[in-house]
C-alpha cells in the first residue's frame, strides 16, 4: 500500500536525521499498528476510535497529508464540519492539488450552505421571498451533492419544508473516500 511505503520512508529519514536509528523499528511498528487500527475502526464504522487513532497519527507524522484527509473524513461523519474543514485544508496545504481533499472540502462547505438555507427557509414567515429562495437553494444543493436524487425528483419542491431533507448518501460518497 502506498501509504505504508510513504510512512516507512518518512520514519527512516527522520531517524537518520535525528541519529537514532535504533528506535526506528519500534516507532515504525507503532505507527503501522495505529494506522491499521484507525483504518479498521473507520471501515467498521467506529468513528470515535478512528478519530482518536487518526489524531494520534497526525501528531506522530504531521506532514502526512493522507492522515489529515482521513481525519477530515472521520470528523465529517461525526458531524464536526469545522474540524473537518481544517483537516482537509491541512491535507491540501501539505499536498497541493490533493483532489480528494479538495472534493471533500467542497462537499462539507456545500452541506453547511445547505443547512443555512434550510434554516432560513424555516425561520422566515410563510410566503417570504427569501424563505422560498432559500428553500430552492437548499434543494439545488441537495441535487448537486447527490445526483441520484435528481432522478427521483422531477420538479422542485413547492414548499420550504419539503426541501429540508439532505441526501444521506453524500456522507457515504462525498466525504468518505
Automatic annotation (TrEMBL):
Record's keyword annotation contains Signal: yes
Keyword annotations: Signal, TPR repeat
Biased composition (Low complexity): 157-177
Signal peptide start and end residues: 1-23
Ranges occupied by TPR repeats: 65-98
Region (Disordered): 155-177
Keyword match Transmembrane: no
Identification of the protein by name: Tetratricopeptide repeat protein
Amino acid at each position: 500500500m502506498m501509504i505504508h511505503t510513504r510512512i516507512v520512508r518518512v520514519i527512516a529519514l527522520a531517524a537518520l536525521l535525528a541519529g537514532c536509528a535504533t528506535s526506528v523499528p519500534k516507532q515504525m511498528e507503532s505507527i503501522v499498528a495505529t494506522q491499521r487500527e484507525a483504518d479498521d475502526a473507520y471501515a467498521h464504522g467506529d468513528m470515535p476510535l478512528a478519530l482518536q487513532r487518526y489524531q494520534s497519527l497526525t501528531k506522530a507524522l504531521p506532514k502526512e497529508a493522507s492522515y489529515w484527509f482521513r481525519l477530515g473524513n472521520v470528523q465529517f461523519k461525526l458531524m464536526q464540519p469545522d474540524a473537518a474543514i481544517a483537516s482537509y485544508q491541512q491535507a491540501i496545504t501539505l499536498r497541493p492539488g490533493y483532489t480528494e481533499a479538495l472534493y471533500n472540502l467542497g462537499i462539507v462547505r456545500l452541506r453547511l450552505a445547505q443547512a443555512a438555507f434550510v434554516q432560513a427557509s424555516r425561520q422566515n414567515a410563510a410566503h417570504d421571498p427569501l424563505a422560498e429562495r432559500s428553500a430552492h437553494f437548499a434543494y439545488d444543493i441537495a441535487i448537486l451533492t447527490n445526483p441520484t436524487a435528481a432522478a427521483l425528483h422531477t420538479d422542485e419542491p413547492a414548499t420550504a419544508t419539503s426541501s429540508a431533507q439532505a441526501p444521506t448518501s453524500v456522507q457515504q460518497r462525498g466525504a468518505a473516500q
